[in-house]
Design goal:
The chain has a domain at about 300-360. About 80% of the residues lie in helices and about 0% in strands. The chain contains twelve helices and no strands. It has helices at about 15-25, 35-40, 40-55, 60-100, 110-130, 150-155, 160-190, 195-205, 205-260, 260-295, 300-335, 335-365.
Length: about 375
Amino acid sequence: MALCPHPASAPPLSVDESAEGQVLSSFPFCDLNEDDLAQNPLFARLLSTLAKQLDETGLSVQVKKELQKAEREIHLHKMTWLRSESLFRLVQELLQEYHLKKQDVQISEEDKKFYETLEQCLLVTQCSRELDPSSTTARDKPSLLGLSKQNVLSLLPPDKEIKKMKQRLVKEIEDLLKKKCFNILCFYQPDWEGESESMKTVKLSRLPEYLENESKRLESLKQRQRENTILLQKQTHCYLNKLLACINILQTLILVHRLQTQNELDRKKTQYLEAKCQIMILKIRMEMVKLQMDIYTPKKIAVHRTIRNTLESALMSEKREHESLETKLSSFEILGQDFEALVKEYSTLRQSIENKKWALQEFSQYSK
């Protein structure tokens, strides 16, 4: 196996557009574009070499051949199994119809003998398969109830009845298959249900061709869908790259231009908040003035002014009287303790006189 040369010693490679398109078409599910191949020529050469040895799914040519061979063998075994399984299901369906039909309709002896022989042969065949060791069963498996395959096969009907049953079974199977094919034909094209049996038979012979064309059309649609999926993946990749580039540009705008204007934005925001605060203060003051105007009407203000003037006049009179009394008191304080004793004696006599006046008034009231 040849070694890959070092990038420094490798000759420059030039991959033309057709080669790049061929490499990309060989690996449709790879997340690559022509720019990636142009920037990595050694990788492009590697992919071009691998494209000759691998298919679009990543399998080598040899593995692909072995896989196709295995698929053909599996298909062959599957068809063999489906053939025997279909025949078995048809026989079972015939027996089910017989058991349902005999509940309502009188069955002839010939039909009864045919179905009983068919059922007996089917049961014996199933039992013999269970008892017969094969490559799919363990050879040392103990026999069921001590029975062997020969014991079960001895329960088959006579050869004459079996031969007669087989001759009729072919016709019954053909009729049942024909009925099912007509059902499939009518399901494929419901408009053909009302046509004659001969016309249905003719169209039934062409049904494989119709189904094959339909299968090809569906396969073409699937291929187109796969191509659209690949194209969508490429466009999605391109879109994501463009989106990342736009995000980087927006990030640059945010980190550079917005930070430069952040101080100006903060100053403007501060001014706005200050103006808003002043407006709120003025609004509060306006509400207070409005409340005062609602509470204090001109009539109430005039009354309050009158009360204020009266209270101020009374206050001035009290102040003058207070000053006069303080002047007299200061003049009395000059006389000293002797005057204070006279004042106490005068107060006592004044109180005694008042008491006697009250007593005299009370006495005069009760004496009447």
